[in-house]
Design goal:
The protein is about 40% helix and about 20% strand. The protein is elongated, with a radius of gyration of 28 Å.
Length: about 425
């Protein structure tokens, strides 16, 4: 959510930003907000005038009573009563105007960084750089579900009976690799100076509204029936929510955290051949990084964070590339974002395994997360990035480390988490 003062002073810039995101249907909202804001400020001025006049009249009544002019005092008291009634009406109107304004402001997209390429959707994202050689072996790399099945490690049929489509049982060596990767991701980020956290796996609606757009919420979040609670789709949401309504001392910034959680997503519209396995599921696990920092430091943190993801995957012998997300592919709260994609030797193409984003002060403004320093109180900037999301990370690992005979090579970085073994033979 952008600053109402900024919108008021720069309406054409806000409209141009909407056009860059190909959301022309929202252009009229800018003028609507300006009208509502003008009416709200006019109402506020009348409220202030009535309150100021109330104090003046109170003194007048006191003076009249001291002079024994009771009838005149009673007439003046009627003015007070009328003012009180009008104040009640104005305060109700003010609340209504504020709610309408906030509702619209939460739909208007954040101002994107000037470096973001202009494009309608993810097909127009721009490749930044490749890391590692995207090798296509002489032998055919099996489908990831078949690799896992060769280890007797996957049971989707049983999961269908217990939970429905989009769930799975992961077992044996496959489950061990999965857990080892998460443990390694945790320690990898701790070694980078991040504080390890395990957050709540459910959050209230006010936090949901603070960290994401309504459209994202509808497509992603599972609601707990009868309670004001949602299952998290990523631990970033509860980690940012941790600071809701707080004023963080400037000396504490930056706050860099790495959090583990299970994640739950509806994944509306999931379909296609690759969905046969565990590429797109309703439940997965994730190691995340979250940063709160000063505005002037956010872009430096953004660049450091996505580079950590690249370093992590390369340490597991997985070739990756980074893609700059274009304007039309950015969620409304994002200022700038890039995807980290892993090489799939089976498909001979890259696929997304993580995303790094800076959101400016949008989340902080919604959740009232501020910092206080020598220059006063202001909103912090928030950033998030995926370290590892499984099972997508597991898929990338298996495809890039499976040999022709089905043996899985264990890279050196992962061996301490796998009991020191260097490979796993197929069952």
């Amino acid at each position: 959510m952008i600053d109402i003062k900024f919108l008021r002073e720069n309406p054409e810039l806000v409209k141009e930003n909407i056009r860059k995101k190909f959301q022309d249907e929202k252009l009229a909202l800018v003028d609507e907000v300006i009208e509502l804001d003008a009416e709200r400020r006019k109402t506020q001025q009348e409220v202030d005038d009535i309150k100021a006049n109330k104090n003046k009249i109170a003194k007048q009544i006191g003076a009249l009573m001291a002079q024994g002019k009771k009838e005149e005092a009673e007439e003046v008291k009627k003015q007070v009563a009328a003012g009180a009634q009008r104040l009640t009406e104005l305060e109700a109107k003010q609340k209504e105007l504020e709610e309408k304004t906030t509702k619209i402001m939460m739909v208007i997209p954040n101002i994107i960084d000037e470096s973001v390429p202009i494009g309608k959707d993810d097909s127009e994202n721009v490749e930044i750089q490749k890391y590692g050689d995207p090798v296509v072996p002489a032998y055919e790399v099996p489908f990831h579900a078949d690799i896992i099945n060769n280890m007797n490690g996957l049971d989707k049929k049983a999961a269908g009976r217990t939970s429905g489509e989009g769930f799975y049982y992961l077992m044996g060596d496959a489950a061990r690799i999965h857990s080892a990767m998460l443990s390694y991701a945790r320690d990898f980020m701790i070694d980078k100076g991040f504080t390890y956290c395990i957050p709540p796996f459910m959050i209230r609606s006010d936090v949901v509204n603070g960290v994401m757009s309504f459209a994202e919420m509808e497509a992603m979040m599972y609601k707990i029936e009868g309670e004001d609670l949602f299952l998290i789709g990523t631990s970033e949401h509860s980690m940012i929510g941790k600071f809701q309504g707080e004023i963080v001392e400037e000396s504490q910034l930056p706050i860099a955290m790495t959090s583990y959680s299970p994640c739950f997503r509806k994944e509306v519209g999931a379909h296609g051949m690759e969905e046969r396995g565990v590429y797109r599921v309703h439940q997965f696990e994730k190691q995340e990084m979250v940063v709160l920092c000063k505005p002037e430091d956010s872009m430096d943190w953004y660049n450091k964070m996505w580079q950590y993801s690249v370093e992590f995957f390369r340490s597991l012998d997985i070739p990756v590339r980074t893609l700059e997300c274009c304007s039309g592919d950015l969620a409304d709260l994002k200022v700038k974002s890039c995807d980290v994609e892993a090489w799939s030797p089976r498909q001979q193409k890259y696929f997304e395994v993580g995303s790094c984003s800076t959101l400016g002060d949008a989340q902080a403004r919604r959740l009232k997360i501020r910092t206080k320093g020598e220059n006063g109180t202001y909103y912090v900037h928030t950033l998030n990035n995926t370290v590892l999301a499984t099972p997508r990370g597991l898929i990338a690992f298996l495809e890039n480390n499976v040999k022709e005979d089905g043996t899985i090579s264990i890279p050196e970085a992962l061996r301490p988490y796998m009991g020191g073994i260097s490979e796993i033979k197929p069952s």
